[in-house]
Write a structure and sequence with these properties.
Aminopeptidase; six-stranded mixed β-sheet; transmembrane helix; five-stranded mixed β-sheet; disordered N terminus; 3 domains; 21% strand; alpha+beta
Length: 606
């Protein structure tokens, strides 16, 4: 049989057959690529769906963590941690494979895919390395029970706290390494929220990690420790809250906490000719030497370490041992605690509750005992003492849920209503540069903070009728040269004209201003390293009463006077440095009775 010859082509040239393998490849390669792309896409889509579903399921599980921690049920806590770890682990596994990594080089979406992978890994590390160590710890064992805190349980918490702090710092570093500038909106938002949450968590854990070794000593493990506690009355505003006319001594001994002494402003030598101790030059310029001549004005400085130093000096002069530190809270914070403790009894059969604490302690007490007689003043002091003592007794009895207490304390701290400063060098270093001692950041890197602080100068309790909102703006992202920063405070006085005449003496004394008229000093702080530029009141340019530099910031004081049912808008502008780096714009303010609405505007910053 003869071999087949190549048949000629139409042009006479012989037609050459392609090899079989090549013909098959040519025929099926396009389809194979299509199938491969489809499979690749399906794998990516399924992976993304798994990651999204897993991370979304973490949210309700994480919210249950607080209940599990507070229940003291270690088995339930371990189960919860395992469940959360399963979800974050699934999100991590579904984004950490060759198919996913293989498309991270693509334009437009590649960096988004990489960001999702890194964020999923960070969330998984956070759960396994920061949350898991607490699974074996019975937080409820700390107490307090029968007035005492279990010091061994406190010591047992030190190791997991340290692990959590280290793990959170590592996760923070990983997250901040993600470049969010080119990410798609939803991805950028999710990554930024996670980064901000961890960035806010780490400083707290870090400080707690530093504090834990000292906590047993602070609780009296090595002998009794005394602390002055001041209750700031927001109805007579001061920079860090209000008039500290109610005070007590808290003693910790082997974990047992007791109130060993109570006092009021009547127990101290006020109106003295000279300050009780030397004053910081900027403090005296901004707030006058009143801060050292009246204990009621010791809370005017923004820096709480100065307040603590002054309060301890007053206490030492009149009552003896001032202890090692000063703790501060206000009736609004007290109302948060009452949600956890339940009502407490007051003189005369009344009850103090979370709903009525603010009105009772900041207004109604002065209506009930309206005169400046010794009897009425003592009755007011007894009310405050019963309120503080009753809540404290509930706290130390162990009847309140520890998670509810932690939530109440965290809320109060976040609003600047919980402050602490210590004379012990080790303890002072732990709280240094935190909002416990100074609400203003020490630099502009994480936040470019403007400060607006309120000090009543009327002598009375008229801030019960006042509220404030603050707007901050800056051209830091658009300025051709040095940027400017402006804080605008709208101060509202809601007392109605017809109510002024009937106000009790303790609410409106009428000694320095006509009855019902309110005088207020607003103190504005600019960013660190900036300079004061200008100020207006109700749109009219004015010269501040005082201008100086305090806490490495320019600060000016402006006094306004309000007739009933009036408002004033006070605006102050500062100029920054041309080559300075500035973090996001923010506002720090006096914690008033009502929350202070804040708006910030930085055009061009995205």
């Amino acid at each position: 049989m003869s071999a087949r010859r190549n048949e000629p082509d139409t042009d006479g040239a012989p037609k050459v057959k392609k090899p079989l393998r090549r013909r098959i490849l040519t025929r099926w390669l396009p389809w194979g690529l299509v199938v491969f792309v489809l499979v690749y896409g399906v794998v990516l889509a399924v992976s993304a769906l798994i990651a999204k579903s897993a991370l979304e399921e973490v949210i309700p599980l994480a919210s249950n963590a607080q209940e599990s921690i507070g229940s003291g049920d270690s088995a339930a806590m371990q189960t919860l941690v395992d469940d959360v770890a399963d979800k974050t682990g699934a999100a991590r596994a579904s984004t950490d494979h060759l198919f996913w990594r293989g498309v991270e080089w693509l334009p437009v979406v590649g960096d988004d895919l990489q960001a999702v992978r890194l964020a999923a890994a960070a969330a998984d590390d956070l759960v396994r390395d920061a949350l898991a160590p607490f699974a074996t710890v019975d937080v409820t064992a700390i107490g307090p029970k029968d007035g005492a805190i279990d010091l061994d349980a406190v010591r047992a918490l030190a190791e997991p706290m340290s692990q959590a702090a280290v793990a959170t710092e590592t996760v923070q570093i990983d997250l901040t390494a993600i470049d969010t500038s080119t990410l798609l909106g939803p991805v950028e938002s999710a990554v930024s929220q996670l980064t901000e949450a961890v960035a806010g968590l780490w400083p707290t854990l870090n400080k707690l990690d530093e504090l834990m070794p000292h906590l047993p000593t602070m609780l009296g493990a090595d002998g009794p420790r005394n602390y002055i506690v001041i209750v700031q009355n927001n109805a007579e505003a001061r920079s860090t809250g209000g008039n500290p006319a109610s005070l007590l001594m808290l003693t910790a001994d082997q974990g047992r906490l007791t109130i060993t002494q109570q006092a009021s402003s009547l127990n101290f030598s006020n109106g003295r000719d000279t300050p009780i101790t030397n004053l910081n030059e900027a403090t005296e310029a901004l707030y006058t030497d009143r801060v050292g001549r009246y204990i009621q004005d010791t809370t005017m400085p923004v820096d709480f370490t100065q307040t603590a130093h002054l309060v301890r000096a007053f206490w030492s002069e009149s009552l003896g041992d001032p202890g090692v530190g000063v703790l501060s809270f206000d009736p609004v914070a007290l109302s948060y605690l009452l949600k956890a403790t339940g009502p407490v009894d007051l003189p005369g059969g009344a009850k103090l509750t979370a709903d009525n604490a603010v009105d009772t302690l900041l207004h109604d007490i002065y209506v009930k005992y309206p005169d400046q007689t010794i009897a009425d003043l003592e009755a007011q002091d007894a009310y405050f003492a019963a309120a503080a003592g009753g809540v404290f007794e509930k706290l130390t009895s162990g009847s309140a849920n520890i998670v509810s207490l932690v939530q109440a304390l965290a809320k109060a701290s976040g609003e600047g209503r919980l402050l602490y400063a210590s004379s012990d060098p080790l303890e002072a270093s732990v709280v240094q540069d935190t909002t416990f001692t100074n609400p203003l950041p020490t630099d502009n890197s994480d936040e470019t903070a403007l400060g607006v602080f309120v000090n009543d100068t009327t002598e009375g309790k008229l801030d019960y009728y006042a509220n404030m909102s603050v707007a901050a703006s800056s051209d830091v992202c658009t300025a051709d040269g040095a940027p400017t920063f402006t804080a605008e405070a709208t101060y509202n006085y809601t007392l109605q004209p017809g109510e002024a005449a009937g106000l009790p003496y303790m609410i409106s004394t009428g000694r320095y201003y006509p009855k019902g008229v309110k005088a207020t000093d607003l103190v504005f702080y600019g960013p660190v390293g900036s300079t004061y530029t200008s100020a207006t009141v109700d749109g009219v340019e004015i010269q501040p009463d005082v201008g100086t530099n305090d806490l490495s910031r320019p600060a000016v004081r402006i006094r306004i006077e309000n007739d009933p049912a009036t408002s004033h808008v006070v605006s102050v502008t500062f100029t920054g440095g041309e080559d300075e780096e500035y973090g996001p714009l923010g506002i720090v303010h006096t914690p008033l009775i009502d929350s202070v609405p804040i708006e910030t505007s930085t055009p061009g910053c995205g």
